[in-house]
Amino acid sequence: MTVASPPELVPLDAIRDAAQHLRGIAVRTPLLPVDELAERLGVPVFVKPESLQRVGAFKLRGAFTLVRQLAEGGATGVITYSSGNHGQAVAFVARRFGLRAVIVMPETVTAVKRGGVERLGGEVVLAGRTSQDRHSRAMALAEEQGLAVVPPFDHPAIIAGQGTAGLEVVEDCPDVAVVAVPVGGGGLAAGVATAVRSLRPEATVVTVEPEGAPTYYRARAAGKPVRLEATESVADGLLPLMIGTLNFAHLARYAAQAALVTDEEIVRAVRFALDRLKLVVEPSGAATLAWLLAQRPGTLAGPVVAILSGGNVDWEGLQALLGPRP
After folding, report:
1. Domain ranges for the chain
2. Architecture of 12-56+159-322 per CATH?
3. What is the pTM of this model?
4. Does pLDDT of 2 surpass 50?
């Protein structure tokens, strides 16, 4: 029997190279202190609000890194499959390079995320409700129309680009002890974990997922990626059925802890971000803050950084999510 070789991991140098190309393109999002949590937990606490990134989410970092390479290689059009944020990032970057962009989105896509793609010149195609539905449709269209595929997470260039957020964390907080990062398909988590642990091996990287979409949590227990039958959560950007193979390999090496949060905790974190931090954060982006809010005093080393991955939610979406104040 032939045993498959482990995938080659993305090196720190590739993340550094991506950071060089992203200068002037990606916003260097700040580390904002969260004094209320710092006082309660007894350690310095910061959030990194990628909700302030261009297109409202970290996805710009990876999308630019891969689309730039495809454009330099002669691509004239690109296609991706996305629940929203990655699609907006691909549309944004494709327009900068003069490329056609087709974005396959779920039939349940929110108006704000579909509208964002269309405002950026992307052509929206709706396909089913799951990540597999979108993937299948995108692959068929790519072959039919000669489009280059930009995967949302399981690709070395995507991981390298997303990892630039981790570089910034260590550069801005050299003594960071804990970094919390959300997991959907795992591109951001893989890149951030690689950057953080390569530069600061003593730091702990905590991955955070909704209880209804534990792709990495289940994979970690099984020792390999596992396809879930279904995923469900208010965090619509964290609902792939399976973590990426390359991403899992990165997290297996660099991530020290996997955590789950409930939808109720996520909604509470969205409200906390709005009320206390004056930040609009979508449910997917608030997962790490939800985990942080659940921690008890004396349980964490510090400083702690929670990456808030995105903020693509509109007023109507916030009203529907938060409802009247209890």
Report:
1. 12-56+159-322, 59-149
2. 3-Layer(aba) Sandwich (3.40)
3. 0.91
4. no
